[in-house]
Structures
1.
Amino acid sequence: MTASLTRTDTLTLPRRLSPPGKVAYAAVPWWVAVPAAAGALLVLVPLIAMGARIDWSRFAELIASPSSLAALGLSLQTSLTSTLVCLLLGVPLALVLARTEFRGQRLLRSLVLLPLVLPPVVGGIALLYTFGRQGLLGAGLDVLGIHIAFSTAAVVLAQTFVALPFLVVSLEGTLRTFGQRYEAVAATLGARPSIVLVRVTLPLVLPGLVSAAVLSFARALGEFGATITFAGSLQGVTRTLPLEIYLQRIDDPDAAIALSLVLVVVAIVATAITSRIAERGQR
Amino acid sequence: MSLTLQAEVAERGFAVDIEIADGERVAVLGHNGAGKSTLVGLLAGLVRPDRGRAVLDGQVLFDLDGRRGSWTAPHARGIALLAQDALLFPHLSVRDNVAFGPRSAGVNPAAAAARAMDWLGEVGMAEVADRRPSQLSGGQAQRVAIARALAAEPRMLLLDEPMAALDVAMAPLLRRLLARVLVGRTTILVTHDLLDALLLSDRIIVMDGGAVAEAGPTEEVLRHPRSRFTARIAGVNLVRGSYRNGAVVDARGLSVQGAVREGESLAEGAAAAAVFAPSVVSIYPEVPGGSPRNNLAVTITELEPLGELVRVRADDHRGHLLSADVTARSVAELDLFPGRAVTYSVKAAGVTVYPL
């Protein structure tokens, strides 16, 4: 009885959702809705649980404390900078991966994607042995008086390291979807490769580019493991919002929760912007 | 000679040697996979051959035969490409699309916009100059694409089936436009459509299996195709064999009587071809009597509507696919359908015989 009721309900669902004349068929069995709902709840419930614990009476005071504001300011500043660096390095990388063919291209792609699957802590250690005092490049930079490890620059480097693959993967996909037909036409109209890039390729993939940049910004904003390993946790210098939350978790859990909510809101706004742009790009 | 091209692309089994005169319009016919797209890609600079050399107006497009190979990038060739899809840049207005070529050549924005408007006027699209490409119909977009290609002032124009993506009603309009603007322009037109070839080209190149199967002046090739392949494309019937007693007799005994083409002479037993148009074929349910006629026993394989007429294709069981054009009424009256055995009857006077 119950089973048949559920069935009827799910069957009427698409009819109610789709206006007359629209496609009323979806190639999905009804039971898929069950694990799908479980998946959505897995994300939603912890957020609600966290939101329920917020001490609203102290909320403003908590997020406006000097250490919180310093962390928030540093996070926004470093994340924006690393997004910029991601664009400067990632757009050329995506172009090279999507538009050219050369020996070792697959290897390069795997390497660029490595930070996606690597624990950020490992990335932090790798960066430390590159730019640290005794590191591969750090020793030389040290002679020149440039100290990167445990500075704000180290935060930006760590964030760029983990966020770059997001931009490259997303943009390479967009470039491949568009193909080279428009670019070929532009070339036969007499446009040099640089003109084609600026006047055809980049404008065409602009929606994809913006959403890729927002994605890498969000990833940079949430960076923790590589930052704490490579940059440390100095208030106002390298202690970004995730690090601040992690430290406050022990001293003042209410402050940690309030700051977490701030990060959640920033993340939601970023996602909303991305999907809006993606929609506009499809039109 | 304006263009000379010799090229081989081993991977695609492509090998051609083509010359095109200054201002000549050449139609390239052939099946899918015959090498037409490769030819276009080679000239546009989008496909690199294994071997070969191409020169346009004295400028080397590529030369891979010498010890030091040279290669001119697509943007430096002065060869514009118009494809099946208009491929207007979606982020630019119609005017900016047409101005793209001049802008790329360094013309200042105002002058480029003015030249764009001139060309938009030429193709009758001036009133949509401020629109986005997404607001245009397929036919309008293709007109704008023609204006864009011409505004780049190319030395040579490549048209890769420009009418193929348009609906039947739009194609004739575009064909007339092309007939007007292509005069005197060195052009390669890839097409499936015989009418395009007839109206828009001075010369025809027929490609088959990556090679040039036949080439010559348009009228000549269409009226007297030398290969069965060309005949099928041209829509005329072709029987090849040797000349015996005023008829062309093929290896399997099919005999077609006809009149030797004026100005040609044929010796008994010489290689010859009999050509007749589908319009001179009559269809009978049985073998008819009367005046001297070629009666060919065939089995209908296909009926294809062709405007007011129906083109009947039939197999003569000797390796020929022969076409006849009849009215829709005759199809009904004679009860023609694929699989039916009938007799094709052709008056000898309607058959031209010429030497091969």
2.
Amino acid sequence: MIAALRTPRGLATALILLVLAALPLLTQAFDQRYLLSIGTRIVIWSIAAVSLNMILGYGGLVSFGHAMFFGIGGYAIGILSAEGISSGWIQWPVALLAATAWAVVIGALSLRTRGLYFIMITLAFAQLVYYVGSGLEAYGGDDGLNISRSRFPGLIDLRDKASFYWLCFALLCASLWFCGRYANSRFGLVIRGAKSNELRMTALGFPVFRYRLAAFTIAGALGGLSGILLANEGAYVSPAMMSWMKSGDLIVIVVLGGMGTLFGPLYGTIAFFVLEEALPPILNLAHKGWGEYWMIVFGPLLVLIALYARGGIDSLLGRRHD
Amino acid sequence: MEYLLLQVLNGVQLGLLMFLLAAGLTLTLGIMDLVNLAHGSLYMMGAYIAWTLIGVTDSFVLGALLALPATFLLGVVVEAVVIRKLYARDHLTQVLATFGLILFFNELVRALWGPAGKSIAVPGFLNRTIEILPGVPYPAYRFAIILVGALVAILLAWLVARTRLGMLIRAGASNRRMIGALGVNIELLFSLVFGLGAVFAGLAGLMSAPIASVRIGMGDDILILALVIIVIGGIGSIKGAFIAAMVVGQIDIVGRAFLPDILKTFMSSSAASSAAPAISQVMVYVLMAVVLVWRPTGLFGQRT
């Protein structure tokens, strides 16, 4: 543990986690409440990125529809809330169950295909969920749905921004811990082995399809959790939260941070949100008014990252030893 | 009966537009093994460039005709600057890089043309109805789209099946390294095919402009639909793309035209009219899922 702190990676990660853990206190001390809401979104998106990394990074399965789990988790909360069931003890298990069940179904169908077809079929399923969401006129249709936050009486009040943040942060830590266990377990090694050589893993006698389906399901459930949190963060759900551009953003985040690395999704999410917040003011410094068009810089930056920096931020922190 | 005929024609018109978009996409995917998400951006750029040129020349036909070489040029430039570096990379890199291109083009359009949408008026000589059958009027502009779309589809079929360029395209689709080894200038071929795809996308964009509107991100959703079409049809297959585009066009239009009435029998009319487009979209994706589960490489895709 102490030895890990001596490497740049360990030190950077420890610092990030420390700052994140203390964020509500820091934002209160400096009176920057706006930063806390960005921080909350960073933490929630990190959980989603961790879940995508489990299949995309470790498994090499390019799912281009991961934002659908934002939608499934979020809409389960939203619909229950609209129907007058506000207890988190009912909402959260139902939402997790919905995300898990959906992940099993589409995983079983999608994993039959390979490569490009897998990218496309996951995208198609995400679009399907998107259009179902926008067709639910009773629950807001395209405009989305204002909801009340889940209630956990006597335990935690999600309307309190700091409490909610710490809950999200605790869940992120749990996801990271879980992902670390996953990556180094026998199960995770099969998933990683199938990424580098599926045929060999099959020849070794591993039922690769079943392993992948299990991984896809776990990732879907965790993605659903991030959807639950996202719905509670804004007290609002809409089809926009699961548009295919959001799935693209998630892939960008995972690659930006470093695919198949434990903390990569966290680095990637922070970098993504920091770029989003910092590029406009920087461009405005260069020339007033340019900041509005920050994506003109961000787009080509993505192209460069895709072409030349596939190791992501994690690879900047020195060589890995595992 | 007449209503059905009109809706089927609308479906054909939408299908042909989708085919124009899908043709370029399936060629780049089949021949260069390149996932180009930015294809929808070329569709958008085609419409915006046409809007400007129509304003300058004050003539729809002239502006549209000038916009085509302009989008070809744009396609060739994009290919030379970015796309060329992606051929040898995996699909994930291609998805990422072209996703970056989408963000770039959407923002570029906002910077150059402003955030508000533009509209292109239906050209005067087509701003009327024609009788396709005695007593059945149909908007002339939509009919013109069908004609142009069908013409381009035939041209493309001829190009691919009968010309030397088409022969190289087909050879490239089945084994791109082999035709390189046989001395074909692959760089030039890829550049040409990409430019051709850009022209088709731009043509689809500018023709759809008077019906829909010219706006930022107009290519993003339709791109996904085009990808669905080429996946249903089988990657690299022009024939597959055509058939899938026609089917998807019919599903979409029929869903919009007839579902509301069916739905109204058991739900409120406002709920029915908002659910119907969503259901017809959902049906398209269900179709794709069914096709892929049944034939994992699409209807006319090559077995691997």
